[in-house]
Amino acid sequence: MNDDLSSRAGKLLQTLVALHIRDGLPVGSQTLRQESGLPVSAATVRSAMSDLEERGFLHSPHTSAGRVPTAQGYRFFVDSLLQVKEDLDQRAMEVLRSELHPDRNATELVQTASTLLSTITSQAGLVTVPRPARQPLRQVEFLPLSGDRVLVILVINQREVQNRIIHTRRVFSEEELRDAAALVNARFAGRELADVQSTLAQELAAARSQLDDYLSATLDMAQQALSDEPGTRDYLIVGESRLLEGASPQELERLRELFAAFERKQDMLHLLEQCSAADGVKIFIGEEAGAEEFGDYSVITAPYSDGARTLGVVGVIGPTRMAYDRVIPIVDVTSRMLSAALSV
């Protein structure tokens, strides 16, 4: 127990937060005394609640004499009072095991993880899409289209297949494209895309004047084919409508502001990049997420990997009065199962 809070005050705060999460209503002193099970008078409970309010853990809505937790109260609850459930719902575990299997490619897996988190927790699920540059190149193929257009087929990270069309600075024959793909595969297969991009850029800059036209054009084509496209770093949010369920008119206005924050992708990606560097589950309560639009909401995330490197994060966004004891372990298990599927 934190030294700044007595065991009795901690018990009352723990009970009040649990009641508010369950019912969504301000909690009065009489209800709190009964639900806490402490052998104290209502006057003692009222005094303790006043003290908690002065410390910034609670506040009193204008329409009620009861109290509700503040973001600071929720933070103390999560850090010091929360008892996370050790046994997850077996049905949820079965669904996660059946859907997050290694036969799916990375894109399907991360999209499925976000959808499952939303469904299981009844919150909005989120996931950052793996950055292609962090993944190894397995194979590339170049197929001729009309004029200077070439279809590029990239096989990444064993299962991921991406197609893109590029424009080359000269027209290549089918045989030349086949030879160019063989050259790229022989030199770069198995290396991370970011490493390949860096090497190609250096070689083109240092030796463009010394290369014959075909080889120079081949390296230029390979650089185009393997470069990140604008916007390749992205995230998905699934189940935003779940946040609307039962929302009051005042809450709807705050949700509109939150959804606007979702659209400002750079703000969200900055937050999620912080999470990807974390070791395990990370919890942001209210404005800890970096914007005032998150004032009434919490973000819970955990990183996922392919066994060798962190690829991104999965998580949920929901009201601050979410069931943390259930949501935290679900996010944790989902990230671990997703990592296991991507590591095969």
Written account of the structure:
The protein is of the alpha+beta class. The protein folds into 3 domains: 75 residues, Arc Repressor Mutant, subunit A; 152 residues, Beta-Lactamase; 94 residues, Enolase-like, domain 1 (2-Layer Sandwich). It contains 12 helices and 10 strands. It has a 5-stranded antiparallel β-sheet with strand order 7-3-10-9-8, sandwiched between helices. Helix 1 crosses helix 2, helix 2 crosses helix 3 and helix 6 runs antiparallel to helix 12. The longest helix has 19 residues. The model has no long low-confidence stretch (mean pLDDT 84).
Can you identify the CATH superfamily of the largest domain? GAF domain
- Give the CATH class of the largest domain: Alpha Beta
What's the total helix number? 12
Structural class: alpha+beta
Q: How would you write the strand order of the largest sheet?
A: 7-3-10-9-8
Poorly predicted regions are none
Q: Can you name the CATH architecture of the largest domain?
A: 2-Layer Sandwich
First-residue to last-residue Cα separation? 42 Å
Q: What is the radius of gyration computed over CA atoms, rounded to a whole number of angstroms?
A: 26 Å
| CATH topology (fold) name of the largest domain | Beta-Lactamase
Shape: elongated
Tell me, rounded to a whole number, the average pLDDT.
84
**Strand composition percent:** 15-25%
According to DSSP, the number of beta strands is 10
- Biggest sheet statistics: 5 strands, antiparallel
Helix content: 40-55%
How many domain regions? Answer: 3
